[in-house]
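Working notes for the structural subgroup meeting. M.R. asked for a predicted model of this chain before we commit to crystallization trials. I am recording the input and output together here so anyone reviewing the notebook later can reproduce the run.

Input as submitted:
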Amino acid sequence: MLIKILFIVIGIIHIIPIIGVLGIGTLNKLYGINIDSGTLEIVLRHRAVLFGLLGSLFIYSAFKPDLQVFSLFVAFVSMISFIVISYLVGDFNRAILKVIYFDVAGLIALAIIAMLKVFSSNQS
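Returned structure, recorded in token form:
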């Protein structure tokens, strides 16, 4: 049951940015930036859709154990890559720092899921 809950939490963390598809105002609030080009708006709104898909995958995986290892990998790559890129680029704002905190929390949830899955597979 805990694995399901944690997958749902990770799914929610990833689904939150889908509100960015609503437009520039929402994106500005979400990332704390001023979007001043159509190109950037397109990229960020498309990113919102992709995160909606990722979040949906993680929530679906909560109920489909066959997808959980794949989903763990995808979530790990998603979260760790954002954190690494943020620190490599540097000079990020508070909104990005908040995303980093959510991703760190998500990585902790992933670690717990991985340990639970390893422990449960050793029990069988």
